[in-house]
Design a protein that fits this description.
alpha+beta
Length: 160
């Protein structure tokens, strides 16, 4: 990314309160990047679903954290959520009376692209989504930054 719009990374505990914290962090960053309100609202909803899945369903030892990353390049916002569980998320067919089970359906419906992949150099997986943006300070490069090579270019925030 260029110097004015570096990608960011946040670390969260595996606790339900982390969902709200992730929403707040992404909303702050979207404002700093000048994203449209609709794009911001969609991104905040989708990160909420992915963090919720990591909190509720990742079977990992105590003390493992969840990483969330956001990058803006070439008119696309990419958000990633990483946890230490190797099991991929499983979409559910929620009934009209179910109170949960719609998260991945929302991601599939609202994101321009999404997927899950194993984390390189480590245990676990990364679930990511992308949204096209039209009015932001974006990188003119057509290359995505390598999001798993280290923390030096990232702004990192720890939450407990």
């Amino acid at each position: 990314m260029n110097e004015t719009t570096p990608p960011v990374e946040w670390w969260f505990s595996r606790h339900p309160r982390s969902v709200g914290r992730a929403r707040a962090r992404l909303r702050e960053q979207a404002l700093a990047w000048g994203l449209a309100a609709g794009t911001t609202d969609t991104a905040v909803l989708l990160i909420s679903e992915l963090i919720s899945n990591a909190v509720r369903h990742a079977r990992v030892p105590p003390g493992r954290r969840i990483a969330a990353r956001a990058a803006l390049a070439s008119g696309v916002l990419r958000v990633e959520v990483c946890d230490a569980c190797d099991d991929p998320p499983v979409p559910r067919q929620a009934s009209a009376t179910d109170e949960s089970g719609r998260g991945l359906a929302l991601v599939d419906m609202l994101a321009d692209a999404w997927n899950v992949q194993p984390r390189p150099y480590g245990i676990g997986k990364t679930v990511w989504f992308e949204l096209r943006v039209t009015n932001a300070c974006v990188n003119s490069s057509d290359q995505w930054p390598d999001l798993d090579v280290g923390f030096a270019p990232w702004t990192v925030t720890w939450d407990s």
